[in-house]
Amino acid sequence: MNEGGQPAWNWGRCVWCVELTSANMSLDEEEPSSFEMVLPGLHGKHLGMKWTLRGLGLYSTNYSTNYSTSGAHGFASIVECERERGTSLPMLRSLYSELHAIFVLLQQEVLQDKTRRATLVAFSRNYRSVMKDCMEEIQNVLSSNQNHQGENELANQISQLSALELIWHLCEVLFMESLQMGHLLPMLLDWVRLHSSALDQMAEDVTQSNCPAEHSDYWDVVCGFVLQARMQEARKLLAQSIIPDGECSMYAAMDELLRTMPHYVAGHTFTEFELKWKYWHDECERLLSEGAFPHCQLRLLCKILLGDAKALLGKKHLMPWYHFLVAKLLFNNPTVKIGEVHNYVQPCLDLYGCGREMEPLDQILQVAFDLNYNQVIKDCSLTLSSWWFVSHLADLLHRCPQFQLGSDLREFLLFEYATDLLSHHSLWSLAPAYLDTCGESGRACLELCLVRLPLQSEKKAQKVLRLCRERGMQDQERSICKQMAMKALRSGRLGSALAWSLRAKDSAFATRIADRFLEDYRSYGFLPHLDLIDSLGPSMLVSDRLTFLAKYREFHRLYSENHYKEAAQLLLSLMMARVAPRYFWLNLMTDALPLLTQEKVVFTSQQCYRLLECLQEIVTERNKESAMNEDAQAEDIIIIREAIASNHARTVIQERTEKVL
Is residue 119 part of a domain? Predict the structure, then answer.
């Protein structure tokens, strides 16, 4: 806080963080206009640039000064410059989440057509409450910080949030609440009282002293209370004065003036209030003209009550100019209309020496008092380094029927805020709710960004998929499943890869994974992830190879349960239907060996002929292509042929015997 209790905030400069693989750099904020920075790996080179989701990507190019290629080869350096979003503190991330929850509720109210002015005021107060809670949390952290680490950052965040809440509250008063309540001044006084922390701290120091009346700030605090119409507190503090003999009547008269000062009460007419005010004002003038206050401080108090310009100006060190403005209205025009306030703004700024170069906070408050709500939004957009404040404020003001805040401006601000959230590692899930309110452009952005989010875990992937399903984005859902399937395949998690490919309904990828299962079987002699294969169900129809894998697993199950006839029939049907890959046919023939050598005949003579046909196709295919393990395969083929011949002979004998009998 600076003099007068105004939030001391270094406005108007965006902070950029440069992220490199080996080092992180933070840029100095001291220079307001421009700065020069050396980027590791890019210094002295010609740069190319490209806007990315997170910020600005810079990279070195191979172009010389005459725009011809240099022909040099080497490693390219890429640096990504990211604007600081102010989310480094956990409390601020919590703030974003709370704002998101209120925003979602507000959109639901809009859909139900319940956005009455009272409803908007309630939502505005909820927004401010969240900001205050965040300030309190940061203050608690600052108070308990024994190592004094990051104190400047914490204090700066408190100051920024205080200034933002000050602006928001004023917009609530001028653009929403005043039109609902009618009388402006009581709401402006509440606004002043809620943002007078400097006076409250001074009053606490005075009241906790051994003798408040002898404290150096005693009369400043009394005057400060009066300037904010906190008459009961002023009277209570005035009663602690050390009153000399013969001056009791003087203090009693001042106490009576403070007690009887009229305040507008809802339900009363302005005419009735103005009559009471005139009577009270005349009484103040009479007492002052009769010299009822020889005490200099009491006389100054009486002049303040009369709205004397010099008396008010003498206490300007107690308050910023916008508090001075409200005090001037309080004692000079208590029934001021909302459209008349702007007439008092510029004189107050001149008294405080706010010339041509105004601070951004002062400028925003000025245009707010001018009821220029569009300019408030634009100035906040240009001044603040984060979009959260201006986007939520613009959305709320857009709901006010008496204002014509352009929907394009509102959508632009929400769009920028949402894309900013999407680039954050933990706040990305808040962005879809904002993009949903941005029409076709918001949906298009969401479709592009969701599939480009880094999926570090399956939990995050499930979150993204849920967002896609809720919005009917089937193509994006399949794309994400493909990404996760590829990621699982690269890490050797075949079961997970197969599950993701099935969710993506990707026939080619499912075929690729099924081939990996079969390759593992050929290498190690067993099928992995049997529980997953057993639970495929209708999903096996995604690809022919997956269908074969499921049926092949069924063959092994039948064989292990001693259902040899059914196993033999299934094995033969897999070969005859040509669903088995060619490279796996020899394995199927090898699997037929135990069935061919069973004591009890399993294959019929007709099935033996078909086995021989399949074996001959394998031999023909083998002769066309040279194999690395040619000798081993040749030996296997001979063994299989002999087993088929032996089984066929036994089958013929058995069939003829049965025919004779």
Answer: no
